[in-house]
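Record format v2
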Amino acid sequence: MPLARIDLITGKSADYRRTVADIVYEGIIGPLKAPEGDRFQVITEHADNGLIADPNYLGIRRTKDCIFVQVTMNEGRTVEQKKAFFKHVADGLQQRLGLRHEDVLINLVEVRKENWSFGNGIAQYAE
Amino acid sequence: MPLARIDLITGKSADYRRTVADIVYEGIIGPLKAPEGDRFQVITEHADNGLIADPNYLGIRRTKDCIFVQVTMNEGRTVEQKKAFFKHVADGLQQRLGLRHEDVLINLVEVRKENWSFGNGIAQYAE
Amino acid sequence: MPLARIDLITGKSADYRRTVADIVYEGIIGPLKAPEGDRFQVITEHADNGLIADPNYLGIRRTKDCIFVQVTMNEGRTVEQKKAFFKHVADGLQQRLGLRHEDVLINLVEVRKENWSFGNGIAQYAE
């Protein structure tokens, strides 16, 4: 059920963007323990003046390559699961795309389980 | 007060997109019982690699035409109202645009009533 | 930590869009009391049929220039702080860009403090 919005700078390859999305998905079915196949993602490219990440907030050096990941999901995950998700995404982006660890902003938004319809106009998780 | 984000594949007509937005709005003032005129919507087109909907999650067959609808609204709606909204949107899209029932993902995000300003820099719902 | 999504009509200058973002940021570190430098913003332009704001909801006259501001932030702000933020943004847009007071829609989404990673794959606010 997570719906992930991924916002990044324009000009990366389609492969690069797909790999970002793959890594986020793997974190969702891994540390966040969503069922396999639970993949719904919106990936949007922005000109560099459309994506503003402070270059030094909390002493973390960010560049124009900073990727924003915002995931809406059901409530109920533990803090440990959330931490593991953050680490999974940052590590994966570095290992597979060479993205600096600093260049990843992640935010989670939690909702109730009846707040989803995955098709057919039905609230599949409501009961 | 609902703010609806509608994400869909690029290449549909302006009429098609407007009708999607009309149907979502009618569900908001219908089953979700928002006041008439309470219409605030962002409609974004995406290349097919910018919108990823699993083609089989929960056994529901989705295509590239899958539309994502994310509605931020005040808390307080019942599960029955939410279910009726989901059904309204999926039925409307099928009846008026021929969209398959399976090709609709809907997510609701709930907030407090003081979290809105509809203009003039005032929190119109705060009291 | 606030992540702000700013959606507006296409065709304004880069300076205009930057000033909108500056005003939102100043409201975040001002009335909402986020730390200085806490600036993460996504600014998206839309064709006029991609941004629908009712022209008269609650008796407020809106035009095609209406700007949507959606801010995801930690829970815990008071109603007074939220009201001051709304006023700051609407006043700033009018004073610095000549935008009508009516043409600003603002929505806040609140999350838990452990729901953020600002880089390095760490939940900086978790403890």
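The two ends of chain A are 15 Å apart (CA to CA).
The beta strands of chain A are 3-9, 40-46, 51-53, 67-74, 104-111, 116-117.
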